[in-house]
Design a protein that fits this description.
Layout lengths: L6 E2 L2 E2 L2 H16 L4 H7 L4 H8 L7 H11 L4 H19 L11 H12 L2 E5 L11 H11 L5 H19 L5 E7 L10 H15 L4 E6 L12 E6 L8 E5 L4 E5 L1 H17 L3 H14 L1
Parallel strand pairs: 3-4, 4-5
Antiparallel strand pairs: 1-2, 3-6, 6-7, 7-8
Helix pairs in contact: 1-4, 1-5, 2-3, 4-5, 7-8, 9-11
């Protein structure tokens, strides 16, 4: 589990970079070697090794091979996995998309490219409609509530960036989105009835797509494991790619990169889904809410 630290000077720490650096650190530690030993074989400094192990810089294949040889990690599968991680990380760092032209926080600048590359997304939000399904009007109201003094132009740029994320769901080779929405998020009293109606209708429209699954967690379901906090699980197609979980609260965020931590969040999501309404019942539930407005 890693608290994201996206920027350090001109360097960027990425999820995949940190995973790769962590694997190399474990190999070095198991071999009983220090960063000084690693620096010598790379003819570099310990600062360079520290940046590599922290995921701050993209790694070259020759450096990875040299470190694996030094650490006695000669298994072709192990070396191949590390090289593949490095390749994907380099590609992600160079990736260009709409997010390069909009004002995103450092956290979102790391998250959005990963979301764009994901083949499957599990989204669970305790208090709101998940970001990928939010309408422009819904986003605008939430943004103005959170930042009442923000200039309208900045608000609109944020709204545009949020809506742009949805294009991935209806584009070529879209990811699968499985989302669970608690009833409370569908009954926000601060949202004007006509705006809330538009949001609910939009959710129904997205739910008709074959790659989108929407479930509602009603009040009647009682306590569910997911109520302890919001998170998104991102899955990827690359061989050996690990799930990445983005956990968000009102004032902090955490990246959970593969392993037992990511698996635990998947289990929480699936247990919450078991308590939620089925697809068809969820649709009927939302339709009934619309009629109430």
């Amino acid at each position: 589990m890693t608290t994201s630290q996206p920027m350090q000077g001109n360097s960027t720490s990425t999820v995949l970079g940190r995973r790769l650096g962590g694997e190399l650190t474990k190999l070095r530690t198991a071999a009983g070697l220090t960063q000084t030993h690693a620096a010598k074989v790379l003819t570099g400094s310990t600062t360079k090794v520290a940046k590599m192990e922290g995921g701050w810089v993209p790694m070259r294949d020759p450096d990875i091979r040299a470190l694996c040889e030094l650490y006695g990690a000669n298994d072709p599968a192990t070396v191949g996995t590390l090289l593949e991680l490095a390749r994907i990380d380099r590609e992600r760092r160079k990736a260009k998309g709409w997010w390069n032209d909009v004002p995103l926080t450092n956290t979102m600048r790391e998250y959005v490219p990963l979301e764009s590359a994901a083949t499957a997304i599990k989204a669970w939000q305790v208090s709101f409609v998940p970001g990928l399904l939010q309408t422009a009007g819904y986003v605008r109201v939430l943004r103005r509530f959170a930042l009442p003094d923000e200039h309208p132009d900045e608000t609109e740029r944020f709204v545009a960036s949020r809506v742009a994320r949805q294009q991935r769901l209806s584009g070529e080779s879209p990811p699968s989105l499985w989302t669970i929405i608690p009833e409370a998020a569908l009954r926000i009293p601060a949202i004007a009835p006509e705006m809330l109606r538009a949001q609910l209708v939009s959710i129904l429209d997205w739910g008709e797509r074959p790659n989108v699954t929407v479930q509602v967690l009603p009040f009647s379901a009682g306590f569910a494991e997911g109520l302890s906090g919001s998170f998104n699980v991102l899955s990827f197609a690359e061989p050996g790619a690990m799930d990445v979980v983005y956990v968000e609260s009102s004032h902090s965020y955490v990246w959970v990169e593969g392993g037992d931590g990511a698996a635990q969040h998947v289990r929480i999501f699936e247990k919450t889904a078991q308590r939620a309404l089925r697809d068809s019942d969820s649709r009927a539930f939302i339709e009934a809410l619309i009629k109430e407005l």
